[in-house]
Amino acid sequence: MAMITADNRGLRLAVRYAVLILIAAIFVFPLVFMLMSSFKPDQQLLRDTSSFAAFLPIGDISLENYFDAFKRAPVGLFIFNSVLVTGVTVLLTLLVCSAAAFAFVFIDWRGRELVLTAILATLIVPFETIAIPLLLIASKLPWFGLDGLTFGWLNSYQVQIVPFIADGLTIFLFVQYFKDLPGELIEAARVEGATWGQVYRRVVMPLAGPVLATAAILKFLVMYNQYLWPLMVVQQEGYRPVMVGLQYFFQLNRAWGEIMAYLSLITLPVLAFYLVLQRAFIASIASTGVKG
Amino acid sequence: MARVSLAGIKKTYGSTEVIKGVDIDIADGEFVVFVGPSGCGKSTLLRMIAGLEDISGGTLTIGDRVVNDLPPKDRSIAMVFQSYAIFPHMTVRENLAFGLTIAKAPKAEKEAKVAEAARILQMEHLLDRRPSQLSGGQRQRVAIGRAIVRHPGVFLFDEPLSNLDAALRVDMRMELAKLHADLGATMIYVTHDQVEAMTLADKIVVLNAGVVQQVGSPLELYHKPANLFVAGFIGSPKMNFLKARVDAVDATGVKLSSPDIGSLVLPKPGVDARVGDELTLGVRPHHLAAGPGADLHGKVVLVERLGNETLTVIGTPSGQQIVAALPGDIDITPGADVGLVPQAAKASLFLPSGLAA
User: Do B86 and A188 touch (CB under 8 A)?
Assistant: First the structure.
């Protein structure tokens, strides 16, 4: 076996860093390209794509594309819609799925294994399969809103939120996490007189930080990237989310600079959300390896 | 404070019966220890008293109430778990006050009770710390404190010291004994450690395979074991068992013989045996002395010097190994021949059924 010297340790480190930088670059370059292009007029943008200049803020740099994007489409409204739909769905998903997982893991009731298996089985059903039946149901559901009782959920926020609240993957994440919590903690709380609701609220959820962050980020990404479903159920501009809004830029007078500006803008909420939760997210991934 | 009574208590999982009809009466203020090997059902029995396991049959009474179907919080019990089970996201103060917070007790009452528990356990300075900043012994103290705050009729302990190191275990054991003396509460304590059982208990319940083997005071169990299991389980080192034949029996005692002990007269009146019966003689290592006039001869196999005594393993002519606790400074080496004199008056005798004769 070769002796490990200071030299070849340095070399190994250098190789390791080189590989990591390369991988990071593969992920970052498209984002840099998007951001840089958003500041360039179309002609220069297309010319730069054949050189490394595509990744640099050089040439005729301005915020022109951003102003044009706002003129072409109600960008602010689309971002608002997406953030609202995504935010409310994430919150309700965390609440409903954690409560469901709590009941599966801690409360003894007849048939829970069967029900859990059935829920997990939904993970293998692609959304496209149920999209049409879901559309038919949504188009007939009653809603009691500001206009009184109405029927049909099309063109609304709730049609983009409610079908996605209960979600097998999120329940599964919570179930796995709850199973690793020491059972004696829950028993101790029960002996102390806590009801199931109090055990959930005061003992289990305060300890669920890492899984809450993971589930929130995964759900956020799924919801923020929604395209097919809103395309099917929303015809009115007022309820459109960002991904459907992208269509506005592929109609007449396609302008790549504006598209890049729009894409840069709609990436901001994702980055902001990730930055807020990244510490907890990384902690939860790390904790799966070094539990206890 | 409360009396606890178990009458015909049973626990079954499907068709498997793990607790097979247990009857125990625990007086108000008594310290009772359930002891037995792993899997004997002692923890299950405790959890049934706590209300964490359903009772499949029989009647459980705490105080004057049958509590079979009551939830844990209505049984007037508090439990200390093996893993401490203190809430990691709460401070010590919040942990202690948890039950009172749940019960929506007034703030003043909460503070007074927490302060009292902290004083009893001398942990006033720890109240604002989180469990992660505490040592194992301090965590255990918090768990006990949480039980004290509830002022329960019955304290339940599920192997509370088994996660502590040996020195700390001895300290905590003494503290628990003092706590029992101070509070005068009924305490039920589960352990597999017979030293804990012997030192803490007013009354020991020995369990094996879901059946109560014997209930009695520590010394009763030590000197008058009801059967071979209890004789072997209580006492350290273990009691020696030797096969012996009955040569004569009368109202005053029994005369026994075997290749290992030669001939021995036990002054045991009323033994239900006949000449020729094959019985088991039980002699504790501490009831064997080296010296002249020995009944029992053998070769020294192993010498363990503990300072205050020397544990000596001796191989007998029949090929059996027995242990004798000899004086600390005795001059003895492996391979030497040794003769032992059993204290016949303190020996136990067991029938072929395993029950004490």
Answer: yes
**Which amino acid is residue B251, in one-letter code?**
A
Express each pLDDT in B271-315 by its tens digit: 888 899 999 999 999 999 987 777 788 899 999 999 999 999 999
With a CB cutoff of 8 Å and minimum separation 6, the contacts of B182 are B120
Q: Do the Cβ atoms of A193 and B79 come within 8 Å?
A: no
* pLDDT at B218 > cutoff 90: yes
Specify the long-range contacts of residues A10-13, CB closer than 8 Å, at least 24 apart: none
ipTM of the complex: 0.83
Q: Do B72 and A189 count as a contact with CB atoms less than 8 A apart?
A: no
Is the domain spanning B240-350 CATH 2.40.50.140? The answer is yes
Domain borders along chain B are 4-230, 240-350
- Who among A185, A193, A207 is closest to B102 (CB)? A193
SS3 per residue for B94-112:
HHHHHHHHHCCCCHHHHHH
B51–A192 CB contact, under 8 Å: no
Q: Contacts of residue A184 in chain B, CB cutoff 8 Å?
A: 81-83, 85
CATH of domain A73-289: 1.10.3720.10
Provide CATH 1.10.3720.10 ranges for chain A.
Answer: 73-289
What is the distance between the alpha carbons of residues A199 and A192, in angstroms, rounded to a whole number?
A: 10
**Which tokens belong to B184?**
């005068």
Joined tokens for residue B165: 């190191």
Provide the 8-state DSSP code for B355. B
CATH architecture, domain defined by B4-230: 3-Layer(aba) Sandwich (3.40)
Chain A residues touching residue B99 (CB < 8 angstroms): 192-193
- Give the C-alpha distances (Å, rounded to integers) separating B190 from A103, A114, A235, B193: 30, 36, 68, 9
Q: Is B117 on the interface with A (CB under 8 A)?
A: no
Report the distance separating Cα B152 and Cα B129, nearest Å: 25
Q: Which residues pair with B189 in a beta bridge?
A: B33, B157
CA distance B351 to chain A (A): 43
Closest chain A C-alpha to B332 CA, distance in angstroms: 49
Task: Transcribe A199-225 into DSSP letters.
Answer: IIIIIIGGG-HHHHHHHHHHHHHHHHT
Query: Across-strand partners of B300?
Result: B314
